[in-house]
Structures are given as structure tokens and as C-alpha cells.
Design a protein that fits this description.
alpha/beta; 6-stranded parallel β-sheet; 5-stranded mixed β-barrel; 13 helices; 34% helix
């Protein structure tokens, strides 16, 4: 059982009206980490700002899954150099997955010596102490823990959204896919105790939250590291009983660990949404084996069929990678065939790029021009299917959780179906936070247009 550590609020707060800015890159786990960073800083007395020139502390919460995210961080650090010169007391910090790699942490320290604070993924809760060290000693702090030291509970959180919340149920990953850096920077799998998760969500419901998304690198592995027989399906059953909670989502699921009991529980649960995000990554058995994914295309397709049989209206989405080392045209054709067979509602498609320290980095690489040509073909196919799927929703009535005005048109409201499809429609702003019935009038590539069904509001 992983050690549980209780966060202790620091006695000493900052003096004056100090401001902070956090810029995050990467996945939902990083966004959730940013909420904890914000909570800790506000617990210290800082207030948020969106303006770099106003900030007294700026923290870049980084991602290293893809090269583009790292490049953005280095570019931003270069631009922040001038701000640091103009404002010497500004504390600049870099945290997250990038510094968790020893060579990257040293590179940041060497190339950007004006950075005051460098820390990794395992010691976010130590931020108050590290800030104090920078201020007291007037020198940079580089503190990256090589391994995790337990699960820290009751860390302050500042959530921007007041309707939907991310709730981390486990940390780390044991899968070691050959292309992925995550197990090296996030550590081994550690599950939070169910009672801590349940209490957090009960408290969120008391605050007015209607929907939670359970987060983990592989939520289907939840509980395997605990000394009690309690798994992800058991957690969903317990959360389904919480009064006032309307919707439960989760991500990400590893197809290999998605068993029949979990499918049956989701099919029977009232609050667990009928949306399954199942990263396939590739449709070729040869490539799946090289990736160390732990399943075949036949097993994946069987899983999809079992889900659709148990949950007929389920929405299926995925991650799909193009250009994994050694991928041939035949391998890529298998991926296209998989997409045609599953008919995903949407998919996050991306090109493989080298992650130093992973086994795939040493394999024979696919030419960049080949990757570019293949990704365009994949996107074209998936867009066609997404559009066709959305057109088939026309005339149907869906329950929509209203999130508020659309970004581009204040006359329209936006919300999501239980299957996680975006819906826009006309209605009063007072419907925000309510569950309403919306009839779909038009299916588009990335959203559904609809009209409010009168007397279709559930308070």
C-alpha cells in the first residue's frame, strides 16, 4: 500500500498583494496539477493574473510527451528572459514532466540560468518551502525527486470551472509502451484510497459541481496496487450512489485492462456516461507488438463489439499514432481499416516523434514526408466518419448539461451530451448548470446544432 501524506498549510504567507501566473502544457493530468499549483499559491496568499508583466511568480507546468510541447517551453523561457531582467524579484519556475528527466533539468539550468525554481512531478506539495528557499537564500533551487514518496492528500485546489471537475484517482503508469516517456516521469502506479476519492467528490457536489472526470494514466488499473480487493468497477459503483452528482466520466483507459465486469458496471450505472475513450494507437498487430501495447487488433475489435453490445448508444473515441518506427504502408493500411471498422466519433491523431530514453527512439525511423502524407490521409478519413456519425444524430433528442454561452456567439448556449458531443442551441443563460433536452437539427464535423425541447429541463 502506498504511503498517504497529509498536506500541511504553511504558517508564513506572502506579504502584500503578490500575483502568480501558471502556464500549463500537455494533458489533463497536467491541467489538474496546475489546479493544485494554483491552490497552493493562493493558500500562500498569491492572487491570480493573466498578465506576465504583473506576475511576481510565473511557473511553467511542462509536458514531455511530444517534442512540440518542449519546444514551446524553451521558446517561452527565451522570451521571459527580458522580463526577468526588467523585474529581478520575479520568481520564474519550471516544473512537471520536462524537469523530471535529469538531462532536461540540467539543460534548463545551463541554458536558462535566470530560472529560479526547477522541480518535477513528485514534489509539487513542497512548493511553499522551495519558494521560501529562493527568497531567503537569493539563489536558484533545483529539486527533482527521482521517485515518488507517497500520495499527498488535501492539497489546496483552485478550479476554474464551477460545474465540472477533474479528480485524480491514481498516479503513474506501469505499461512501458516503447514510445512513451510517461512511466519514467510520472513513476509507478499508485492508487488513492477510495474513501479519499469519494469524500473529495462528495465535497465537490456540495459546492455545486454536477460532473466529475476521473483521471489516471490508466484508470482500468486502479486498485491493483492496494492490499484490498477493490478495483475501478467497484469505485464506479460507489460513486454512482452519490446524491446530487449527475455525471461521471473517466480517462484514460488502456484497452488491455478493460474487462467485461467493467463494461457491465458502466452499462448498469446511471451516472457513468456512455463515452469510451480507448486509445488504439495502431491497427497493425506487428506495430502493436513493437509498441508493447499488450493486445492485438482482433482483441481490440472484440472489445469494441462487446462495449457496443452492452451499451448500444456508446460513443467511441481514440488516440491514433502515425509513423511509429518501422511502420510500412501495409501497417498503415491496417490502421485505416481499423478506423473504418470501429467508426470512431472522433480521434486524436498525431505523428510519432522521438522521445529520448524510450526504446522506440533507437528503432528505425520513418521519413518525415511519409509521416506527413499518412497523417493527412488518416485525418481525412476520420473527419469523413465523424461528420457522417454526427449527421446520423439529426432528429434525436439528447440530455445536455449546459455549460454556458459559446465562445464566439453570446446568443448561443453550449453543452455536452452524455456521449461527450458538443451541442450548441439557443436558450436563456439561466439554464447554465442545468440538464436540458435538446433536439438535434444539424450535425456538423465537430459539433451538433439543436433546439431546446420545451419543458425538457431537469433541475
Amino acid at each position: 500500500m502506498v504511503e498517504k501524506i497529509e498536506y500541511k498549510s504553511p504558517n508564513k504567507k506572502v506579504e502584500g498583494q503578490k500575483k502568480y501566473l501558471i502556464q500549463s502544457f500537455g494533458c489533463q493530468m497536467n491541467e489538474r496539477d496546475a489546479e493544485s499549483l494554483s491552490g497552493i499559491l493562493e493558500d500562500l496568499g498569491y492572487i491570480p493574473t493573466d498578465a506576465q508583466e504583473e506576475a511576481d511568480i510565473i511557473i511553467l507546468n511542462t509536458c514531455c510527451v511530444r517534442e512540440t510541447a518542449e519546444s514551446k517551453v524553451y521558446g517561452l523561457l527565451g522570451r521571459l528572459r527580458k522580463l526577468k531582467v526588467a523585474k529581478p524579484d520575479l520568481i520564474l519556475g519550471v516544473c512537471g514532466c520536462m524537469p523530471q528527466q535529469e538531462d532536461v533539468a540540467k539543460k534548463i539550468r545551463h541554458n536558462f540560468p535566470f530560472v529560479d525554481l526547477i522541480f518535477g512531478t513528485h514534489n509539487v506539495h513542497e512548493l511553499p518551502r522551495m519558494i521560501h528557499q529562493v527568497q531567503e537564500n537569493h539563489e536558484a533551487v533545483l529539486e527533482v525527486w527521482a521517485t515518488e514518496k507517497g500520495i499527498v492528500e488535501n492539497v489546496p485546489v483552485r478550479r476554474k470551472d464551477k460545474l465540472k471537475a477533474w479528480v485524480t484517482i491514481m498516479y503513474g503508469c506501469n505499461n512501458f509502451c516503447t514510445y512513451c516517456i510517461v512511466p519514467y516521469v510520472r513513476g509507478r502506479e499508485r492508487s488513492r484510497k477510495p474513501e479519499d476519492i469519494i469524500k473529495e467528490i462528495q465535497d465537490l457536489v456540495q459546492e455545486g459541481y454536477k460532473e466529475v472526470t476521473l483521471l489516471g494514466q490508466n484508470v482500468n488499473s486502479y486498485g491493483k496496487d492496494m492490499d484490498v480487493n477493490y478495483r475501478f468497477a467497484d469505485l464506479l459503483l460507489d460513486l454512482d450512489k452519490i446524491e446530487g452528482l449527475e455525471r461521471i466520466r473517466f480517462m484514460t483507459s488502456h484497452p488491455r485492462d478493460f474487462d467485461q465486469r467493467l463494461i457491465d458496471v458502466i452499462a448498469s450505472a446511471k451516472k457513468v456516461c456512455e463515452h469510451f475513450h480507448l486509445p488504439a494507437q495502431a491497427g497493425s498487430n506487428r506495430i502493436l507488438k513493437l509498441m508493447n501495447r499488450g493486445y492485438t487488433r482482433e482483441q481490440y475489435l472484440d472489445l469494441i463489439q462487446r462495449i457496443k453490445s452492452a451499451v448500444p448508444n456508446a460513443s467511441i473515441t481514440a488516440d491514433l499514432m502515425v509513423g511509429f518506427p518501422g511502420e510500412t504502408e501495409e501497417d498503415f493500411a491496417d490502421t485505416l481499416d481499423l478506423v473504418k471498422r470501429v467508426r470512431y466519433d472522433s480521434a486524436f491523431t498525431f505523428v510519432y516523434n522521438i522521445r529520448t530514453g524510450t526504446p522506440a527512439a533507437k528503432m528505425e525511423q520513418v521519413a518525415e514526408e511519409v509521416k506527413s502524407e499518412r497523417i493527412q490521409r488518416l485525418i481525412e478519413l476520420q473527419n469523413k466518419i465523424s461528420y457522417e456519425n454526427n449527421r446520423q444524430e439529426e432528429g434525436k433528442v439528447f440530455e445536455v448539461l449546459v455549460e454556458g454561452e459559446t465562445k464566439n456567439n453570446p446568443d448561443l448556449l453550449a453543452g455536452r451530451t452524455r456521449t461527450n458531443k458538443l451541442v450548441v442551441f439557443q436558450g436563456p443563460i439561466e439554464l447554465t448548470g442545468k440538464l436540458v433536452q435538446v433536439k438535434i437539427t444539424k450535425g456538423r464535423l465537430n459539433l451538433l446544432e439543436g433546439e431546446l425541447v420545451l419543458n425538457g429541463t431537469n433541475d
